Amino acid sequence: MTTTPGDRAGHLGESTSDPADGRPGVSTSRPTAGRPADWSEHTRRALALFAAHGGGDALPPSVEAARSDPAVAALAGPAAQTRAGETPAATTGAVSERSLDGPGGPLPVRIYRPAAAGASGPPLPGIVYFHGGGFVVGGLDSHHAWVSALCEATGRVVVAVDYRLAPEHPFPAAAEDALAATLHIATYAVDFGIDPVRLAVAGDSAGANLAAGVARCAARAGLRLDHQVLVVPWLTPAAPTPSRTEYATGYGLTDALLSWFLEHYAQPGRYDDPLLNPGLADDLTGLAPATVVTAGLDPLRDEGQAYAGRLRAAGVDVRHHRLEGAFHLFNLAGAVGGEVIGAATAVVAERLRP
């Protein structure tokens, strides 16, 4: 009998230690009050919507086509495309934009302040956020709904960074922008409404790669971060894993697309650079406490899990949540269930609330 991606998604079982790790602090995600009944049902609906708008396993014909992919836009829904200043007050508090001085010129950022905190008030804990998109696509608008939800769930000011994209700006441009933005925000935290001793970094997919790199550089430079959040992280871009093979096709992000992104971002001679490949960094001691979120149906699942294990072995306080039945783009698929976004941000916020 031939199975489809929806068939393979399965159903979410009881919460157990991660069978591929088995150590305390690593868990699968189980629905509880306020969480969706079944992550895999969300995946089925999301993949159906993705396919209905032309999404599939074929590589994009060009970078321009990838950046205007209607299938990804359909997954996100219209709310995700709301720009700063247009967000309903009931959903998110003050949203503003500014530019920082970046290594390659002006570096746009979008600042989110929780609705409960009001438009002004004492400094709050903060997050510097880096969007996903394979270092080639994505931006402030593509991740607006997700970052808004993260702001509200954590009660933190979130500064989303619009770093330079490849192939126009290859590695290490994005990594340099991420580090420069973090150092600037840490130095002038109060100007952003942020408490300078409560600053975290976070990102999803390629953005999680940037966050992991910043966390490592910060530790070496003596900059104290209070947390790092890595959602469906892409941490060892050139390294094969079982999940890269098992979920190579059929789940939105394919193994071939990962290779396509990497080819546009970096030269093969740079693949061993720990700034590009945090999963291969030889020393992870002294890094900020970490929350690592992986998706059960994601080609990147295994490298996120492995990195959580390496952090723990290095003495870092880490918690790994594996969302069984979820696929790589779950955090952007608000069009098929906002409750999933709420559940995911609740997992992230577990150790980030003020």
Give an account of the 3D structure:
The chain has about 350 residues and is an alpha/beta fold. The protein is built from eleven helices and nine strands. It is about 30% helix and about 15% strand. The chain has a nine-stranded mixed sheet, with helices on both faces. Helix 6 packs across helix 7. The longest helix is centred in the middle third of the chain and has 16 residues.
Topology:
Elements: H1 5-9, E1 26-28, H2 39-52, H3 63-67, H4 70-76, E2 95-102, E3 105-112, E4 124-130, H5 144-154, E5 157-161, H6 173-187, E6 194-204, H7 206-221, E7 227-231, H8 242-246, H9 255-265, E8 290-295, H10 301-313, E9 318-323, H11 338-349
Q: Number of folding domains?
A: 1
CATH class division: Alpha Beta
Widest beta sheet: strand line-up: 1-9-8-7-6-4-5-3-2
Q: Mind telling me the CATH superfamily name?
A: Alpha/Beta hydrolase fold, catalytic domain
> Whole-number average pLDDT?
87
Along the chain, the helix and strand elements come as: HEHHHEEEHEHEHEHHEHEH
- Give a count of the beta strands, DSSP E runs of length 2 or more: 9
Beta-strand portion reads 15-25%
The geometry reads as globular
Question: Tally the helices: what do you get?
Answer: 11
CATH third-tier fold name: Rossmann fold
Distance between termini?
51 Å
Helix content: 25-40%
- How does CATH name the architecture? 3-Layer(aba) Sandwich
Major beta-sheet overview: 9 strands, mixed
Give start-end ranges of low-pLDDT stretches: 1-37, 81-90
